[in-house]
Amino acid sequence: MAPTPRPRGRPKAFHDKTDQNTVQALDRGLTLLELVAARPGLSLSELAAESGEAVATVFRALVTLEGHRMVEAEEGGQLWHVGPGAFRVGTTFLRRTKVVERARQPMDTLMRDTGETANLGIEAGDEVLFLSQVETHEAIRAFFPPGTKAPMHVSGIGKALLAWYGEIRVRRVIERKGLERFTDLTLATEADLLRDLAATRARGYAIDDQERATGMRCVAAPIFNSHGEPVAGLSVSGPAFRIALTDTARIGALVRAAADQVTEATGGQQP
């Protein structure tokens, strides 16, 4: 009997993530790139201190990344930022899924109907990863640029996804990530979060009531795939003085309708 062929493009040790199968220099370089993205405008010495690597090691990695336009330095101050090469690579991730394209018009409509910023996000590594945003024109507004991450239990999109996950999956996310308290309103116990997720399912949308940042509210709803599984979420975020709790039912209906529109446009179905 002929041996079963391995999946194309994957070596025999594909699932072996031990040190012998990682390239340490590449690992350090990518870690440094993540640091530059998270903390733009740091100097060479600051990046070395933050990463725990020697200045010479960090310099060589930065020069290598700069050669591929993944990072770039400001003139004069030598402060480092993400470069256009990183943007080019990152946008290929967005092109993998049609949800970003199909969500753009509903998000634009949401922003105009509510006057607040509309966001699109998915779950990545037990966190919310924001993919796209349509900003309001208001001076005071929520800001989640593409690539920003947030804990699921304090994010409207995160709670919208968790509400339609199975309880076992929710408990595993809690075990892995914990329930860090950010404000006095954070749902920092499993019982409180599960009660909130049940209420979310009942009304069809999630509410982040100043649970991550005091003075900011968010209303979100899930987007489903063809199997009725939550794979993304749409939200509207803004300051609490403009989004009162009495406004959340009206905004929730708009967000849910927009999310359902994206579900239909991408071939998904309600669970």
UniProtKB/TrEMBL annotation:
GO molecular function: DNA binding; DNA-binding transcription factor activity
GO biological process: negative regulation of DNA-templated transcription
Pfam families the UniProt entry points to: HTH_IclR, IclR_C
Classification via InterPro entries: GAF-like_dom_sf, HTH_MetabolicPath_Reg, TransRegBhcR, Tscrpt_reg_IclR_C, Tscrpt_reg_IclR_N, WH-like_DNA-bd_sf, WH_DNA-bd_sf
Residue span(s) of domain IclR-ED: 85-268
Membrane listed as a keyword: no
All copies of domain HTH iclR-type, residue ranges: 23-84
Keywords recorded for this protein, A-Z: DNA-binding, Transcription, Transcription regulation
Protein's name according to its UniProt entry: IclR family transcriptional regulator
Organism: Pseudotabrizicola alkalilacus
Lineage per the UniProt record: Bacteria, Pseudomonadati, Pseudomonadota, Alphaproteobacteria, Rhodobacterales
